[in-house]
Design a protein that fits this description.
200 residues, 10-stranded mixed beta sheet, 0% helix, mainly beta, UDP N-Acetylglucosamine Acyltransferase, domain 1, single chain
Length: 200
């Protein structure tokens, strides 16, 4: 069932007949929303996104451009998904640190998935954390604290396991603190953070 009479759905967006898009949803150009997805009123979805089957997006969720949301993922109020993020199948997000049935906080903590990060299948992300730009969370991991830009984490709880390039390759950092990925990107390590050179 499609219900989007009042939704700001771009004419080039593709909405499957068995998706449910509530009134007051914004969907950008070229975005695809597939079967059995439910997008609640107030949600904002950018351009060229792919929202796969059996997904739910609550009304206080913002999704940037070119985001991939695989099947079986539910995005709850308080989640901000920046551009170019990949969320793998059945990744789980929470938005209440001390949930009780029929008890609702006045405001949900913000969980932010920064630009280009990837969340592996079946990973769990606790509320109020930030996953850094181009970071990679391994499948099945449980993220309990912030993840730095360009870092790779996995495990329960998720721990730092190395650095990763925007292309996804691992980055071995030598004593000089500089590294060039085979894709041509250059990085330097400083103050415990990895910085991509030539970027503003």
């Amino acid at each position: 069932m499609l219900r989007n009479n009042q939704a700001a759905v771009n004419e080039t967006a593709k909405i499957h007949p068995q998706a449910l898009v509530d009134e007051g949803v914004s969907v950008g150009a070229g975005t695809s929303i597939w079967a059995y997805s439910h997008i609640l009123s107030g949600a904002n979805i950018g351009v060229d996104c792919n929202i796969c089957d059996h997904t739910l997006i609550e009304g206080k969720v913002t999704i940037g451009d070119r985001v991939t949301l695989k099947s079986g993922v539910y995005l709850w109020d308080g989640l901000v998904v920046e551009d170019d993020v990949f969320i793998g199948p059945a990744a789980a997000f929470t938005n209440d640190k001390r949930p009780r049935s029929k008890k609702y906080p006045e405001e949900y903590p913000q969980t932010r998935l920064a630009r280009g990060c990837s969340i592996g299948a079946n990973a769990t992300v606790l509320p109020g954390v930030r996953i850094g730009c181009w970071a990679m969370v391994g499948a099945g991991s449980v993220v309990t604290r912030d993840v730095a830009d360009f870092s790779q984490v996995y495990g329960n709880p998720a721990r730092f396991a190395g650095w990763v390039c925007v292309c996804g390759d691992s980055l071995p950092i030598d004593e000089s603190g500089f590294v060039e990925c085979r894709c041509g990107c250059h990085y330097r390590l400083g103050g415990g953070s990895l910085i991509r050179e030539g970027q503003s």
